[in-house]
C-alpha cells in the first residue's frame, strides 16, 4: 500500500494521468463526452489561477469568475467584432484580464480577510452588470456570436471537438507545470508565508502588497487564458458567463480537490464536472443529491481529496521514519502536507 501511495504522488502519477488524458478521446463513448472533458480542462485552468491567490497566498478572491468573463469577452469582441485572428486576440485576452486584475488588486489588496472577500464579490457583480448593460461594447443580453476558433495547421482543425480537446489539454499541462514550478520556487514560498500570516511574513522582510498583487495578477491571467479558450470552444457567449455563481463553482472545485495542492484543482474540477453530468437526468433535483455529497466531503475531508491523501501519506512516512529511527522527532504539523506538490 505504501509503494502504491508513493507511485500516486511521484512521477508515475503524472505519467498515468497524462496517458489517460491522451487516450480519453479514443475510449469516449461519444463526441459529447470529449467536449465535456475539454470544458473541464478549461475550467481547471481557471481554478489553478484561483489556487494561486487563495490556496497559495490565502486571499479569497470572489471576483475570479468575472476575470474569466473578461478574458472570454475580450477574445469574442476582438475576433467577432473587429476581425482579429484568434492567437493575437487570445494573447490580448490574457493581458486585459491581467491589467484589470492589477487595477483591482491595487485597491482591494489593501483590505484584509473578509473585507477583501466582500470587496471582490462586489467587483464580480460590477463586472457582470457592465457586461450585461454595456450594449455598445458587449452586445448586452444578446451576446456575441461568430467567435473565432483557434487557427489550425495542416490537417489539424481546432474547430473540431477532438483537436480542440488536445489544445485545451496542452494549455492545462502548461498551467500545471507553471503552478508546480511556482509552488517550489522562492516566490511560491513567499506566497505561502503570507498565507500563514501577514505579521509573520512582514517579520521576514516580505513586501506584502507587492507579492499579493503579483499573486493576484497571475491568478487573473490564468482566468483570462481559460476565458479565451472557453469562448473559442462554445463560439457564443452572453452575460451569464460573468455570473458570480461561476466563482462559487470554482471554489467548490478547489474545495473538493484541496486548496494549495498541485493536483487538487484538476481532481476537484474534473470530478465535480463529471458528477454533475452524471446527475443531469435528475434535472433540477440533482443538487438535492450533489449538495449533501459536498457537505459530507467537507466534514470528513476538510482539506479536500488530494490534501487528505497527502496528509495520510505524510503521516505514514513519519511513522516509518520513527520505526526505523526511534530518535527521530519529525512531527506532522497542520497544513504541512498542503505544500507537498509531488
UniProtKB/TrEMBL annotation:
Residues 323-342 are annotated as: Disordered. PANTHER family: HIGH-AFFINITY BRANCHED-CHAIN AMINO ACID TRANSPORT PROTEIN BRAE, HIGH-AFFINITY BRANCHED-CHAIN AMINO ACID TRANSPORT SYSTEM PERMEASE. This is Branched-chain amino acid ABC transporter permease. GO terms for cellular component: plasma membrane. It comes from Stutzerimonas zhaodongensis. The keyword Transmembrane helix applies. It comes from the Bacteria. The chain crosses the membrane at residues 12-28, 34-53, 60-80, 86-107, 114-131, 164-183, 213-238, 250-275, 287-306. It is found in: Cell inner membrane. One of its GO terms (molecular function) is branched-chain amino acid transmembrane transporter activity. Keywords: Cell membrane, Membrane, Transmembrane, Transmembrane helix. The keyword Secreted does not apply. It is a multi-pass membrane protein. Its main location: membrane.
